[in-house]
Write a structure and sequence with these properties.
Length: 897
């Protein structure tokens, strides 16, 4: 059992470690972890209560549709129509079960999807730093902290270098809190516990180490029950629009039903029949499945994206993706492979080439084509040691004998270069222990570490060449430290530009000796040289960017790298066409309120932005949004969080992204690849089009039913459909094909079209025309079949009603093929190639045949057995809407959707 810590903030770091029986350099052993997991359980808060199956079932009875069906059953029962009442009740149950099972599946799919996005922590166990899921942490775990990390347990800090935390989620204090490791009084309030880091907060800058002192519900945030109350159910804008459409149709439907009932009564038809017909019409017309199918379509789309490495964290983001017309993307790791390898080192005396790629520790330093021993070159050795010391990455051999790394790929590349020279970080730190770190700052573009060096301190600095050179007074050359001349400074900047123009990422290193560890690290530095890293473009990026351009989506590179490096990569991947493309640097960007209209136009047309700060990213997004664009923005750092939140679609990196960025974003790329963004945009477009097809299909079918009954009532003809037949159609031929349309894979050519206007309605005037025309075609076909059955074949009314029922049923089934895209082929299109559509058709035909040939069902639905001539009539007339619809699509696509 772990000892009681009492008030850990009042203890020294050593006391806390001793009480928890753990050492700072080794962490917990496996047997300790197992024992503590049994004692404390998983590191989880009480999960937000998910909606139970019972609650989903009960909610189905709260819809207007169910109330209308219940009213129809009650009316039938009141008039003594037991069969009709039972049949309507059966339809009510079927409709409810369809809604229940589809919503249950959609919700459970989304809940499973959200579980994919688990937060990771870097914990020291058995002497090795390991990436762990947050729920695996136990008291005593030693956790590494860096800017951008989300704290996953309550920690007592044992090391802190310029460490600050955002604790607004816990204390409400919006200003980041500076952290240290000194003990505090026992009675210090929560907000002033500077030596603690709390679960649910985040590191805004700096780095450090902490030991876990509480997990799960024992953490401070676990004790605040209101923070784990069930969140309100999210409704996307698309779902709200669908609900609004359904509600508007209610009133139109009720008005039509009243007209049909009144006209039927005036024509002398049975009052009970007309009342039930009116209610059935209302039920048939209202597209009650809209919200359910929308949820299913969105959820399936999210799952498809997750399988393609795009984890969407907000349901509303799926539909926004389809309207995206600008993607602002980082360079490193998104357009490039993020596998950095140092290929060249420049010192004042020589230029060295390095062999070996990636994490391969076998490589040579070459000078003029000949291998050399880097430890014999004093300046080169000092540069490599500086890169290894000014570093937070880890490099170690796995149990299988391979090499593994954790940390920033740039820092990993420095460790690999050092290892090629026989310089190991662990042994170097034993000789030169680190005593202070000045964390990397996006404004200064530098990082520094202080190390004990005899009676003094060695300061190691790395950063952007222009930033480091600005702070250097001396130059290391052949073992001497000489004053750096302005012409030499300019020459180094020129070499930096030449390397950057080749697409290499360039880093400068410097050092100095100081007597006080609290001195300014960036003053009077000794310049050591440059390292150039190769990070080749991803092989699939160029094709993806071309696909974006064909889809009317502009790709804009927004990077913190150098202008020439940015332009070189932009040309290689196809963001721009030539080396003369405009690159706008962050130093030239003004706040939007200070820009002239010409300057804004220049920014809006630019494709490459370099050396851009997080604040400038925010301004750039706002400028494009104000210009009417829907902007997706990629980011990985804690400083990118505001821009990710501001963008219409915030896209975080799943591999190299900070946890703050991932939790702020709408979508997380689990492979950090630009091509995954394009896949997600394509899925967003497909989902919207699928929902649009479903709505178009459902409304055109429902309109046809209303027109059939209404026109027959107006001309005082026998009703071609009975109320129960309408309800049967509503459950069978409407729902299943509509669901199939909602989950289709979509038209592959959808990325050859421009993005849709985000303000565009689900149904435009063009779509409403299509609904009217399709509804009219089905109506004419059914009434024509009904008239032929009565007047040409001399069928009885019951037989003629059977003909019209079957004609309408099959016509609606074939009508699903009219939902293909107008620019697709008749046979090769997304509807024909959708297996769910064929499954729905087969299922519906089987149910129709059962309705006709199973005596019990036939009696309830008032259906008769037809002869050969009757079936020929049904089949021929049912194909007319499909044939005419295809002709209209082929010849007059402007009139249809």
């Amino acid at each position: 059992m772990v000892g009681d810590l009492g008030e850990p903030w009042a203890l020294t770091a050593e006391q806390v470690l001793n009480t928890l029986e753990v050492t700072q350099d080794q962490g917990l052993a496996d047997h300790q972890v197992q024992a503590r997991r049994k004692q404390f359980g998983p590191n989880l808060l009480k999960r937000t209560r998910k909606r139970t199956a019972w609650e989903i079932l009960v909610s189905q009875f709260k819809s207007l549709i169910i109330l209308l069906l219940a009213a129809a059953a009650a009316v039938s029962l009141a008039f003594g129509e037991w069969v009709d009442s039972i049949a309507i009740g059966a339809v009510l149950i079927i409709n409810t079960l369809i809604g229940f099972f589809t919503e249950l599946k959609a919700r459970r799919s989304m809940e499973a999807l959200y579980r994919l996005g688990t937060v990771q922590s870097r914990a020291l166990r058995n002497g090795k730093v390991t990436e762990l899921s947050a729920e695996e942490l136990v008291p005593g775990d030693i956790i590494e902290l860096e800017g951008g990390d989300v704290i996953t347990a309550d920690l007592r800090l044992i090391d802190a270098a310029n460490l600050q935390a955002d604790e607004s989620a816990l204390t409400g204090e919006s200003v980041p809190v500076a952290k240290d490791t000194h003990p505090l009084p026992k009675d210090v309030p929560l907000a002033d516990r500077r030596n603690m880091a709390f679960k649910g907060t985040s590191i805004t800058r700096g780095s450090g180490l902490g030991v876990v002192i509480a997990t799960g519900m024992n953490t401070e945030i676990g004790k605040i029950t209101q923070l784990v109350e069930e969140a309100e159910e999210e409704r996307t804008p698309l779902e709200r629009r669908l609900n609004d459409l359904g509600h508007r149709l209610v009133w139109v439907t009720l008005a039509i039903a009243v007209v049909v009932v009144v006209s039927g009564l005036m024509a002398g038809k049975d009052s009970l029949l007309m009342i039930k017909t009116g209610i059935a019409l209302a039920v048939a017309t209202i597209p009650e499945g809209l919200p359910i199918v929308a949820t299913i379509a969105l959820a399936r789309g999210m799952l498809r994206m997750a399988r393609k490495r795009a984890l969407v964290t907000r349901l509303s983001a799926v539909e926004t993706l389809g309207a995206t017309n600008i993607i602002c993307t980082d360079k490193t790791g998104t357009l490039t492979e993020n596998r950095m390898t140092i290929v060249k080192v420049k010192t004042a005396s020589n230029t060295y080439d390095l062999t070996g790629k990636g994490l391969a520790l076998e490589g040579q330093f070459m000078q003029n084509g000949q291998p050399i021993d880097p430890t014999n070159c004093e300046t080169l050795k000092g540069l490599l040691e500086c890169g290894v010391l000014c570093n937070n990455a880890h490099l170690y051999r796995s149990d299988e004998g391979g090499v593994q790394a954790s940390g920033d790929p740039l820092e990993v590349a420095l460790l690999v270069a050092g290892a090629k020279a026989g310089i190991e970080r662990e042994s170097l730190l034993e000789r030169l222990p680190e005593v202070r770190e000045e964390a990397f700052d996006s404004e200064t573009k530098m990082m520094a570490t202080f190390h004990s060096h005899s009676d003094n301190f060695l300061v190691c600095v790395k950063g952007a060449a222009e930033s480091v050179l600005d702070h250097c007074r001396f130059l290391a050359r052949d073992g001497e430290e000489l004053p750096i001349q302005e012409e030499e400074r300019s020459a180094w900047l020129k070499q930096n530009d030449e390397l950057a123009a080749k697409g290499l990422r360039v880093l400068a290193l410097a050092r100095k000796i100081v007597s006080n560890k609290d001195e300014n690290p960036y003053q009077d530095l000794v310049f050591l040289g440059l390292v150039a890293m190769e990070d080749p473009p991803r092989s699939d990026v160029k094709q993806s960017i071309q696909l974006c351009q064909e889809a009317g989506i502009r790709v804009i590179m927004v990077t913190g790298d150098q202008p020439k490096t940015a332009r070189s990569i932009a040309v290689q991947v196809g963001v721009v066409e030539n080396d003369e493309a405009l690159v706008i640097e962050g130093k030239d960007l003004k706040p939007p309120e200070e820009m002239t209209s010409m300057e804004k136009e220049k920014l809006l047309s630019a494709q490459i932005f370099a050396r851009v700060s997080p604040r400038q990213k925010l301004d750039l997004i706002a400028l494009h949004q104000k210009n009417g664009s829907v902007v997706a923005m990629t980011g990985d750092g804690v400083n990118d969080a505001p821009a990710l939140k501001k963008a219409d679609i915030g896209v975080a990196m799943g591999q190299r992204g900070t946890q703050v960025a991932q939790q702020t974003a709408d979508m997380v790329l689990q492979d950090d690849a630009f091509s995954t963004i394009v896949v997600a945009v394509q899925e967003g477009r497909i989902i919207f089009e699928n929902i649009r097809k479903f709505v178009l299909f459902l409304l055109s079918c429902n309109i046809s039913e209303v027109l059939i009954i209404s026109l027959a009532s107006i001309v005082r003809a026998p009703l071609p459909l009975t109320p129960l037949q309408i309800l049967f159609l509503n459950v069978v031929t409407d729902v299943f094909p509509a669901l199939a349309l909602g989950v289709g894979k979509g038209d592959p050519s959808i990325m050859n079209r421009p993005p849709r206007d985000p303000s565009e309605s689900i149904l435009t005037n063009r779509h409403w025309r299509g609904i009217a025309i399709y509804g009219l075609l089905i109506t004419i076909s059914v009434l024509g079949a009904f008239a032929l059955a009565l007047n040409y074949h001399d069928y009885t009314v019951a037989e003629a009603v059977t003909v019209s029922f079957l004609t309408l049923s099959l016509a609606q089934l074939w009508h699903v093929f009219n939902m293909r895209d107008s620019n697709s082929r008749f046979i090769r299109n997304d509807v024909v190639q959708n297996p769910f559509v064929w499954g729905a058709i087969v299922l519906c035909i089987l149910l129709l045949l059962m309705a006709v040939f199973v005596p019990v069902l036939a009696n309830v639905l008032s259906l008769e057995i037809l002869g050969f001539d009757g079936w020929i009539l049904v089949i021929v007339m049912s194909f007319i809407p499909l044939i005419l619809g295809q002709l209209l699509i082929a010849s007059g696509r402007k009139y249809l959707w």
